[in-house]
Design goal:
Strand order of the largest sheet: 10-11-12-13-14-15-16
Largest sheet: 7 strands, antiparallel
Oligomer: single chain
Distance between the termini: 38 Å
Helix content: under 10%
Length: about 475
């Protein structure tokens, strides 16, 4: 097997016209993998100013991103123009904590400005809902710290409210009709599901959760076993139970309970839910003996992930036993493998067990940070001194072209890879937003702005507006 990917590392980014080849050799007796069928190149949009081959909108006039700072919010169109909206109309008291929060989705942009003080205990916030045109649709002003947390496909907005002198936070919902619904004390686990229901942790007692429909008031309370740490899924939440040697995964939805026996994983005490997809029924299960499995909640199919590394590579483990296969928001499974010199990321197909390389190897990283969306993975290598769970040392010298510590890599399985320098690997993935289709990545330029990478072509554009960058979908 041979992994070979073009790389050109110059200053902050890879530029065209440079073709450094890195080849990671494995067992020479292994049959070479067939070359994948070439994919047709997407046609660039002539009315777009950046990421011209991505699927960001229907036309150049569509708002595809938002940038914001403490003073201004801009709705950025694909053609590079923008709509500017002012913020911070309410002066904060001296010494107050201040923040601006912005989220987008469901055809809305939601912006919150708030401040709070401890002595005396006081706070203020204003939340506004905008259409992509910049039209103001609704506004809430409160004497509490109110911030948007998530937004559903239909515009249903989840907000977290901190009330002065209250012991915990309250969850509020704004329905698409504008109606305000108070869910009480607790924490909503992410955005509404496709059917409009919510998963929520309740704060009135330990280990209490609920599935709620804020439109009708329907609610189903659940008390999982103590210490089971429920994980949000695409329709509810899941947790593990065990009785003797029998292990089961329980999936709770508003409609009821689904139970899946897990005969492929024996020791119930060691199994944990490593990740769950936000949009599909995919679940990744791992146990402390490094065995892992994939469970499809829609079909009930349980597949043991018998990862057979190519010759010369083996599974990557850190000193805390936390590094292993991970799942992206849309169900992609990435698994890191290593040898004595480098770490190579692979994308794993749970059905066939096949591995497809993700970009280039990292040379002797101390730890890795990664995230993915829409089939695009962003990964960074950091120093062992910056983590409590470093990777074991690498004894051999890395081959020429392997990516050094302090590098962020953006890659798609079997596709091109692009590398950028970073100040901190901990910035990944939060400071490197990926568009929903995976075709565009915003890369911080270190000066308060971003470079926008077209993942298909490698073309880099300067973002037309400075400030925190957020794709509208």
């Amino acid at each position: 097997m041979r992994i070979s990917t073009p790389l050109c590392l110059a200053a902050l980014l890879l530029t065209a016209g440079c073709d450094v080849q890195l080849t990671l050799e494995t067992d020479p007796e292994t049959e070479p993998e067939p070359e994948p069928e070439p994919q047709p190149e997407p046609e660039p949009r002539t009315d777009a100013a950046f990421c011209k081959t991505a699927s960001l909108g229907a036309s150049g006039s569509d708002v595809v991103a938002i940038t914001y700072s403490q003073e201004v919010l801009r709705l950025v169109r694909w053609d590079g123009t923008s709509v500017e909206l002012g913020l911070s109309s309410e002066p904060a008291p001296s010494g107050a904590n201040q923040a601006v929060q912005v989220i987008a989705g469901g055809g809305l942009v939601v912006a919150s400005e708030w401040w709070s003080t401890f002595e005396p205990s006081d706070s203020w916030s204003r939340v506004r809902w905008f259409a992509p045109s910049g039209e103001l649709l609704d506004e809430w002003t409160t004497e509490s710290s109110l911030g948007p947390q998530a937004i559903g496909a239909d515009g249903t907005t989840i907000l977290n409210e901190w009330v002065p002198d209250a012991p915990t936070s309250r969850q509020l919902v704004r329905l698409p009709t504008g109606e305000r619904v108070d869910l009480g004390w607790g924490w909503v686990m992410g955005a509404p599901f496709d059917d409009g229901t919510l998963a929520m942790e309740l704060y009135d007692a330990p280990d209490r959760f609920a599935l709620v429909d804020p439109r009708t008031g329907a609610e189903r309370a659940v008390e999982p076993p103590a210490g089971s740490y429920p994980a949000r899924t695409h329709r509810g939440f899941a947790y593990l139970t065990s009785a003797g040697d029998d292990v089961a995964l329980v999936h709770e939805t508003l409609a009821g309970t689904e139970t899946f026996e897990l005969p492929a994983l024996a020791d119930g005490a060691s199994i944990y839910i490593a990740a769950a997809s936000e949009t599909t029924g995919d679940l990744l299960l791992v146990d402390t003996s490094a065995e892992s499995a994939h469970l499809d909640l829609e079909t009930g199919q349980l597949t043991s992930l018998d990862i057979s590394p190519p010759g010369g590579l083996w599974a990557l483990e850190d000193t805390c036993g936390l590094t292993g296969p991970s799942m992206g928001r849309t169900g992609e499974i990435a698994t890191p493998l290593r040898d004595d010199a480098v770490v190579q990321l692979f994308q794993l197909d749970p059905a066939s067990g096949s591995l497809t390389s993700l970009g280039l190897p990292f040379a002797a990283p101390g730890f890795l940070s990664l995230g993915s969306r829409g089939g695009t993975t962003v990964a960074a290598s950091g120093s062992a001194g910056d983590t409590f769970c470093p990777l074991p040392t690498f004894e051999a010298e890395a081959p020429p072209g392997a990516l050094p510590i302090g590098t962020v890599q953006i890659a798609r399985a079997g596709g091109a890879a692009y590398a950028f320098e970073t100040v901190s690997a901990w910035d990944v993935p939060w400071s490197y937003p990926i568009s929903a289709d995976g075709g565009c990545v915003a890369v911080p330029d270190g000066e308060g702005g971003h470079q926008l990478l077209d993942v298909s072509t490698g073309e880099v554009s300067i973002a037309p507006s400075a400030g925190t960058w957020l794709f509208s979908r």
